[in-house]
Amino acid sequence: MFKVLVTDGISDTGLKSLFDHPNFIVERQPTLKFEELKNIIGDYEALIVRSQTKVSAELLQYADKLKVIARAGVGVDNIDVNAATGKGIIVINAPGANTIAATEHTLAMMLSMARMIPQAHKKTVGGEWDRNSFKGVELYKKTLGVIGMGKIGTEVAKRAKSFGMNILGYDPYLTEERAEKLGMKKASLDLIARESDFITIHTPLTNDTKGLVNDEYLSKTKKGVRFINVARGGIIDEKALVRAIQAGHVAGAALDVFEKEPVADPALLDNPNIIVTPHLGASTVEAQEKVAQEVSEEIIEILETQSIRNAVNMPQMSGETQQKMQPYLLLGEHVGQLVVQLLKHAPSKIEINYYGDLIEEDTELLTRTMIKGILSYHLSDSVNLINALHLLKEQGVSYNVQKNASNKGFANYMELSITKGSETAKIGATVLNGYGARIVKINDYRIDVRPESHLLLVKHQDVPGMIGKVGSLLGDYQINIGTMQVGRTTVGGEAIMVLTLDKQLTPEVIRALTLINGLNEAQSLELDNVDSFYPGRLELEKIK
Ligand SMILES: NC(=O)c1ccc[n+]([C@@H]2O[C@H](COP(=O)([O-])OP(=O)(O)OC[C@H]3O[C@@H](n4cnc5c(N)ncnc54)[C@H](O)[C@@H]3O)[C@@H](O)[C@H]2O)c1
Ligand SMILES: O=C(O)[C@H](O)COP(=O)(O)O
């Protein structure tokens, strides 16, 4: 059974798949204080939050069983994603599920500000019939500057066009072609400042966007400009905004999000030219059902089948790429497990080289699976694909990844080399079309071995009779040999033998092997999860 804790106001309808699932127990605690949350968080495998619950590094110290933190929405700034990553906890969100709600709220705020609807409403319900104080402005033929042309910015631009507005958009990813298709103009921030009558913000809050609209930017804007922020507090410097409104330069602002929430600053709340809502951008019945439904379904997938779609702290892959990369991902972990056993030490340096078809692919996840394979030998279950790179850094291990154009004789080839002091171990592997995964290089020896649970690596003199001696000794101990491969670099020098076996070797057999004349070393190499490893899905069993 998996226990899911739901804090914040999350839609019951959206949580239906979790409520109905026989393997999940859902508990709602929408009004917990930090101390209370800290005391219970250790019982849960999954946590669902909106923007109100602060999932801090301190809280996560108590979250011993937690595997997934789900943000029923977009922004994850209330979650310490680094701390979650360090603990191997997946952070997921529901990008896109509240796009329409935030878009419509942006337009509602723009229209309300333009026609002073909240101010007029307040006076009217207060008993005054004031038809003189609320002469608004029209949107028609005005210029709207959209900063951040992602999902919400794009939808806002499309709808604003239908009001007859001219649209300018700024986004590092906005191309001339896309802007043209949308019937708008790609602009610089300065052009938006100079020409816009309304400026709406739709970026995340990042180091780059924090205080993007500050005194300096405001000084470049057109007199009478109006701002809308339904993105994140802090992108507009609130003090600078108030100064510009008081100076009569900025005509108004419509704010849904604030530097500090709940907002209490009278300079914002008592200003007749500023209208506010309490972070309501995503608060529609439809959006709330959708965000809760998306994260509920994903929690079930992650905990039951270890498949991840929208993780914030994992490299993303399209379904098609994931399917294409699947055999390499499975092999990559085994390559990592093998190389660390070969070195017999925790490495201080890792080198990963990709060749052939792999240089065209997104290999970030593959790199992580190799690193997970290496680290799990010493760190065991505490390593997963989420925290592998973080743990590597923590251990002070450097790693370098290269994609090479040179031909290694295979359509695809990955080589992992790890070093400790003067010792290095190397494994080369490929996926052969129609034949599956193969280990094709151990240190400098060429071989051809299918990854199996139990392997025996023998280093011996390249002299007649060695294969027979090893085979008959294993027979004496009732150990069945699956396959046997030999490799050598020079005739008569040192050679290697790699055998796949039906069961694990005991130290006694290893000792007996080393007594064979001409045999320099025998090492048992064990691979985890070989049987469950090749059937198909992205392997994340350590997250379970
Ligand atoms: N008020 C609410 O309730 C509410 C609801 C939903 C989303 N949001 C917020 O709205 C914002 C936009 O959400 P989205 O779903 O459209 O995200 P998105 O990721 O689809 O789009 C964000 C865009 O911002 C752009 N961007 C990043 N840095 C930029 C910069 N320095 N200058 C210009 N553009 C930059 C990115 O390239 C991207 O295209 C986010 O901050 C999100 O958290 C708020
Ligand atoms: O990032 C988001 O999804 C929005 O800010 C909505 O936040 P909320 O779920 O707390 O309303």
UniProtKB/TrEMBL annotation:
It is an enzyme of class 1 (oxidoreductase). The keyword Amino-acid biosynthesis applies. CDD domains: ACT_3PGDH-xct, PGDH_4. InterPro entries: ACT-like_dom_sf, ACT_dom, ASB_dom_sf, D-isomer_2_OHA_DH_cat_dom, D-isomer_DH_CS, D-isomer_DH_CS1, D-isomer_DH_NAD-bd, NAD(P)-bd_dom_sf. Keywords: Amino-acid biosynthesis, NAD, Oxidoreductase, Serine biosynthesis. Catalyzes the reversible oxidation of 3-phospho-D-glycerate to 3-phosphonooxypyruvate, the first step of the phosphorylated L-serine biosynthesis pathway. Also catalyzes the reversible oxidation of 2-hydroxyglutarate to 2-oxoglutarate. Belongs to the D-isomer specific 2-hydroxyacid dehydrogenase family. This is D-3-phosphoglycerate dehydrogenase.
